Amino acid sequence: xxxxxxxxxxxxxxxxxxxxxxxxxxxxxxxxxxxxxxxxxxxxxxxxxxxxxxxxxxxxxxxxxxxxxxxxxxxxxxxxxxxxxxxxxxxxxxxxxxxxxxxxxxxxxxxxxxxxxxxxxxxxxxxxxxxxxxxxxxxxxxxxxxxxxxxxxxxxxxxxxxxxxxxxxxxxxxxxxxxxxxxxxxxxxxxxxxxxxxxxxxxxxxxxxxxxxxxxxxxxxxxxxxxxxxxxxxxxxxxxxxxxxxxxxxxxxxxxxxxxxxxxxxxxxxxxxxxxxxxxxxxxxxxxxxxxxxxxxxxxxxxxxxxxxxxxxxxxxxxxxxxxxxxxxxxxxxx
Amino acid sequence: xxxxxxxxxxxxxxxxxxxxxxxxxxxxxxxxxxxxxxxxxxxxxxxxxxxxxxxxxxxxxxxxxxxxxxxxxxxxxxxxxxxxxxxxxxxxxxxxxxxxxxxxxxxxxxxxxxxxxxxxxxxxxxxxxxxxxxxxxxxxxxxxxxxxxxxxxxxxxxxxxxxxxxxxxxxxxxxxxxxxxxxxxxxxxxxxxxxxxxxxxxxxxxxxxxxxxxxxxxxxxxxxxxxxxxxxxxxxxxxxxxxxxxxxxxxxxxxxxxxxxxxxxxxxxxxxxxxxxxxxxxxxxxxxxxxxxxxxxxxxxxxxxxxxxxxxxxxxxxxxxxxxxxxxxxxxxxx
DNA sequence: CCACAGCAGCGAACCGGTTCGCTGATCAAC
DNA sequence: GTTGATCAGCGAACCGGTTCGCTGCTGTGG
Lengths: 335, 335
Known about the structure:
The structure is a homodimer of 335-residue chains.
Chain A: H1 4-11, H2 15-23, H3 30-43, H4 49-56, E1 61-65, H5 74-90, E2 94-98, H6 103-112, E3 118-121, H7 131-136, E4 141-144, E5 154-158, H8 160-173, E6 178-183, H9 186-190, H10 194-210, E7 213-218, H11 223-235, E8 242-245, H12 248-261, E9 270-275, H13 277-282, E10 288-291, H14 294-310, E11 318-321, E12 325-326
Parallel strand pairs in A: 1-2, 1-3, 3-4, 4-5, 5-11, 6-7, 6-8, 8-9, 9-10
Antiparallel strand pairs in A: 10-12
Helix pairs in contact in A: 1-2, 1-3, 5-14, 8-10, 11-12
The structure holds a DNA duplex (30 and 30 nucleotides).
């Protein structure tokens, strides 16, 4: 309700002085500042975001661009959105949700309407088309995900390669010489999903180093299909008895498939996985695992974006958050 | 980049004429309009959201206030956020996420900073404190949830009472005379959660009408605790063999508990439940059930809010979205 | 005692739109 | 031919902040 003019009148000073107090950009004597503060409190004044945005050409808002993703695990999404919003608030920013199926269009509109100061892109893929309008307008942005080529944009992600290596090491250390590698659907790798590919190639590489034979199995889409596929994998006597999983649906469904076949962990099968932290919050997942770190990743992303906004020309940054492996006894030690 | 002044110059008209074309509020001859449209296209102009907000005192943004506890325990949340954002965009609004632990403070700040035109409150409880600043500032809002007293604010929610009645009917129709009612933790009811209480009292009432004896069991918090509690319930020979569930954690965990005890559905137990639609998308939930309708609920909420913003003094509305029961053969017909 | 530096606060201009009263042109009626 | 109504478009004022050059006062040094 109250405007800066009301505050000025109440405090007996000029509008510009009030502004100086509010922004802190100019020295104001303690006495005047006290008068202004009192007036602000009395009138319950707070700055009009739109007016300030117009004057400063800073909206203090970040656009969070959610990719279009039917197939992916959306329960995890909420954790990221909340973590992003919390981190943004801490830096004085608010978060605008951009969920348009056509992410490029969403970005374009937000830019030309000057709705945000920068973007955080979720579900990044290699050669992400959303980068085009962003780079063209020279807008600040941070990728949540680590494509091969970040095209001059800051990026942060979980270190899926490190996670994969940890899990492979864990199996190898326990004496395993071979393992089934339960992967995401093939399409995800083909579509250039950054994390899936980084995990897979790191797992392959480390497994080779450690002399662990990997039998890769791409799983289908859809809960029932996954369950059936898991059963098939578990039933095949040719398959190794250790399982390395990077597929949230499979992690969630595995207990059912084990149940179907009367198998026990770790007696009959050894299991390690990397999955969304959210999964473990709802289910008993007693698998030794590496969990995603939504809070750490999001906090880093927002900090990087805030810095990028402040200094657009500082060198491009890439940050990988190293996760922790939590042993839960789902791996049998073999001779 | 381009401002309305650039467009005016390019088109050879005044700024106000460009504005008339953009807003459509005033008649402009087809020829001038064509010139303006051409200039807009050529300069890739689109209005500066902040400037328009300042001039019109309409931000065209909606604040979505996410409750605190929700953050910890709702895989369904993402579905609601996306559905809200999609619906908002359809009405020309954008969505600002307000996730502050202290929801009241978040609302207060958004109001005094004029950041949004109205609010959508998630995870509403009876006597919700967030309504105080909203009502005091006479701000438009819509509740996603249906408290006893909506305090003059529009509200929309799934018709949990109807859902409960459907499920009770389904059991009674199949000849059951008694059922265990697996409920949320007691605290949820005590904290004034609107949907939990509406479901519970409707179930109780309908069960009485249909001569179905209900044995209520409030479940604990935490996956392992839930699993153990479920086992205890299933093991007790005194308990009825039919299960009426309103507790997402229990729905997700029940297959594990059944597995623990070697029980089959529907041979050993009949199961019906009401749960988040998200749950069924990820897991094999072959329980006869009523699912939440995030898209329908969110669309209605945004439409109601848009109307409320347009006409603040129209009569208060309450809408309940009636869900569908989907039979999946998890109920045994008894004599 | 005067000159000048330093400093707190003022005021005007500006950010990019919208709104509304007014102008000048066109045209019909008398 | 003059009057009056109609209408497209113009221009100034305004929304609520920020910014920056300027003013007038205080105080120090010569």
